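Re: beginner question about structure tokens

> Can someone show what the tokenized structure looks like for a real chain? I only ever see the sequence side.

Sure, here's an example I had lying around. Input first:
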Amino acid sequence: MRKCEICGAALPQGSRAWYCRTCGIKRRRERDRARHQRLLEASAPRERFCESCGAPLVPGSKARFCEACRDVRGREQAREQRERERAYLGEMGRRQENAREEAAQQRGLPHFRSGLGIEELTRLAREHRTSYGKLVAWMDLHRRRPGADEELA
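And the corresponding structure tokens:
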């Protein structure tokens, strides 16, 4: 026969409980009260400090940096992001340029640069046994129409 761990009262036959009903209720209340107190203490705003300079932050805020450091950090992050984007776009641009050159070589057409006149385009169309319209359409498809891309000049 089992007995209550707190008061020693006899528990019903076959029961797996450690406490009688009254002691169980008291113990649960104490446990819940302690848990509630821990949650209140955890949610109470505590003093936090800037990760960069160590200045105290506004209580209750989730900020990691003070106002002065936030501005500096924001500028640094924006600069780093721009550099990453430039590097990525530069690499993608080189890949696209190489893909266009390969496609032009496979078709037997030259890789065009902007600044070609109508006479030159007509001559190129005749050389490659195609019409002026098809040549210009191909250039539009590959963004190589004269004057369309000023960076490629």
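Each token stands for a local structural state, so reading them left to right follows the chain. Confidence is low (pLDDT under 50) at residues 145-153.
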